[in-house]
Design brief:
This protein is an alpha/beta fold. The chain has one domain: 3-Layer(aba) Sandwich (Rossmann fold). Helix content is 30%, strand content 27%. Strands 1, 2, 3, 4, 5, 6, 7 and 8 form an 8-stranded mixed sheet that branches. It binds S-adenosylmethionine (SAM). The site of S-adenosylmethionine has 19 residues, from strand 2. InterPro entries: Methyltransf_12, SAM-dependent_MTases_sf. Its EC number is 2.1.1.222, 2.1.1.64. Keywords: Methyltransferase, Transferase. One of its GO terms (biological process) is methylation.
């Protein structure tokens, strides 16, 4: 499938589609690989209804920004903010084409991307843009299905990235760490 447009995602969110919940096992891995935020900035690309960005912000102590190209997703995320406790910043942006200068921070200690990378058509350009916004020593955290984890006959095999995608994703980083969660693989990639 070609890159899914903002209109495609917006329609899914508006029609009530929701995605795999962030589990305790996943947040344990996140904490292990990203470490405490100490109020450093984090950017969650394709933040959806905001669960991961909220976790980064409220539990790990990052100053999180969630960006998404679907207005309904961002509205759902913002609706869960508690008035008493400032939450993540929510920003409407298509990361593949938006002006990175419009991001609040020039660089982020952590960039996260959960169940999004598979849908990026131009992966080289996407990763260039990620490297542009990562602070020196910063970590890119990618959570994705792997196609190889499903049978060829499984119609959901298309949800996973291919072996070639994996090779490309993991090339050119000084540190590459991985962790597995059933159908998902988590990548912690460090500049
Ligand atoms: C499968 S959902 C995952 C949402 C969330 N990360 C989660 O784990 O629940 C993919 C999300 O990425 C967003 N998205 C896809 N491509 C994007 C892009 N180029 N820029 C910003 N958001 C994007 C979609 O709008 C959607 O909310």
């Amino acid at each position: 499938m070609a890159t899914a447009s903002a209109a495609y995602w917006e329609r899914l969110w508006a029609d009530g589609r929701r995605y795999r919940q962030v589990t305790g096992a996943e947040t344990t891995l996140l904490a292990k690989h990203l470490g405490p935020g100490r109020r450093r900035p984090a950017l969650d690309i394709g933040s959806g209804d905001g669960a991961l960005a909220r976790h980064l912000h409220h539990r790990l102590g990052y100053r999180a920004t969630g960006i998404d190209c679907a207005p309904t997703a961002l509205a759902l995320a913002a609706a869960q903010d508690a008035e008493a406790e400032p939450g993540p910043v929510w920003q409407l942006m298509d990361f593949t084409s938006g002006d990175l200068g419009e991001l609040l921070e020039p660089a982020y200690a952590a960039v996260t991307c959960r169940l999004v990378y598979r849908w990026v058509d131009d992966k080289p350009a996407f990763l260039d843009r990620v490297r542009h916004v990562l602070a020196p020593g910063g970590i890119l955290w990618v959570v994705t299905e792997l196609a190889e984890r499903r049978e060829d006959t499984d119609p959901l095999k298309k949800l996973g990235i291919t072996g070639a995608d994996v090779e490309f994703l993991t090339a050119g980083w000084s540190v590459v760490r991985t962790a597995d969660l059933d159908l998902l693989r988590c990548y912690a990639l460090q500049l």
